[in-house]
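#random but structural
TW: two for the price of one
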Amino acid sequence: MQFEKSAFQFLSDLNNNNNREWFTEHKPKFTEIQNDVKEVFTQMRNNLEQHDEIEKMKVYRIYRDVRFSKDKTPYNPRFAVSFSRLGKHLRGGYFLQIKPGDTLLGGGFWQPEKEDLHRIRKEIELDATEFRDILSDPTFVKHFGGVFEGEELKSAPRGFDKAHPDVDLLRKKGFIAVRRFSDEQVLSDDFLQEIDSSFKALRPFFNLFSDVLTTNLNGESLI
């Protein structure tokens, strides 16, 4: 099972004809392709459940909410899915976007709640060794380049030392690992295996953050 060229071609055509008239005319084809894509996403979930506990799969709509956007194009020419982990003790989530020229896989903590972000920062302030170990792990480096992506503050957050040796981590407003793929990779026979391999590579990252977010600074469980 894999993504077909027809799905990529439809997204490219939609990108060049991002209007309701064109989409209405081609909606039967979209429905057919979307059903095929959902089957691939379901297989991805099945693969994930061999090594993680998944609570929910969310397939994103192709329709854009343009009410508060300057960009009034009605469709987002991509197929995207996310997988939520099960229970309060399993933090982090998986994401995949299929889009010609911009396919990416991601996982982590995009916009953590204020309390969660503060807890992560306090752990980094106390001892960032385990965070650095994740970033330097050969498997994490291979799949995600050894960096956390996401928005950052220009300086240390309020209440934290600007001269802290790990201020680069303290400045982060989210912690995301991202891997990008070429169109050729997406259409290859082993793409689903590559996706699953990358999802597996996120687990030490998720395990560390899950431990941090379910304990206090003394290591006592909060759940």
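TW: number two ↓
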Amino acid sequence: MERIHRHILCIDLKSFFASVECVDRGLNAFTTPLVVANTDQGNGAITLAVSPYLKAQGIGGRTRLYQIPKNIPYKKVPPRMKRYIEMSKKVVAIYLSFVSQEDLHIYSIDECFLDVTGYLSYYKKSDYDLAEEILKTVEEKTGLTATCGIGPNMLLAKLSMDIEAKKYKNGIAKWTYEDVSSKLWPITPLSQVWGIGKRMEQRLNNLGIQSIGDLAHYDKNKLKAKFGVLGEELWMHANGIDNSIIADFRHQPKEKSFSHSQVLMRDYYNEEVFLVIEEMAGTLTRRLRSDVQECQVIGFGITYSKVTGGGFYHSLKMDQPTDDTGKIYAVCLSIFDKFYEENMPIRKVSISLGKLSKKSGRQLDLFSSLEIMEKQDKMMQTIDEIHEKFGKNSLLKTTSLLSNSTIRDRNQKIGGHHE
């Protein structure tokens, strides 16, 4: 399979929130025990960030305050999202002094990708030397330290940063395709690798896949049969292949799409939100079928509580258009697994269905049965007709009676019953 050969930097600001608080107080983040947490929530508050000093003591970034050993004293400060955004913009401005906007992808408030392929001859530096200069400039101008991964594609740059860069004094690691077998394949558990969450790890473990090497050598067609387009992506990533480029992440002009966002009445955590996601996917697919449309691009996003701020939104293109609730729900969960930060409070869920096309027939793949697909279509059509005639609350799954379901209230608010 063809592989791209670029010079990609993935730069992450170390313990960003906590480091900003230390810089603003004139403190050394590597010698100061500082925790960023909501001071109104008492000892049960989740730490949004801890200083590098506390990380070195084994304190994780998403633990509750009461879990910090009592023999470790620390300073607790409340989060200041406005200040963190301000500092993030300052760092991005530094990156843009080295590369153009077209070669920068802002992945999160503290992490960016830079494609420096076209700049090495201009600066007369290797990608490694240029990374050193950028990190040094960030520290001199902001007081913040960073780690950097370098790779021939975005995936290997990210993995070298996540897995190896922290081991070196200058915080820089470089992986090539030749390093995949020696550095990527031995990794276990699977969830140590970007893009594999705990739920996906368990499903892969059930197939006998324990290491990334196991995944790389597993039958790609079997993975695709079980997980769809995500199975093929897992196999490619296990082999160090990622042909996406920064240009893929630039905003394109909006085309017609169906979208749905829901602000939750309380904080939801982890798997508790899955039912809400499934119900929202069902609502959107009913709209698709009503309009005789299918979608090929699925976007999914989570917004965290105002107390913590932040969130994510990402999209995935399917091999074939679909109006199947189960497939769309599965894609949403895969994006959730990949980007959700454990134990973060969820207050808003967003789903969008794009690249719409008129449903004109079925294209079979190796793993589809026309008879089964026609039965599924007929069943969904019958359910849609019942909802149209008797109201959206006339036929619900038993899970809709659970406390974390929102569909009954939502249906009533949007006219769930037809007189």
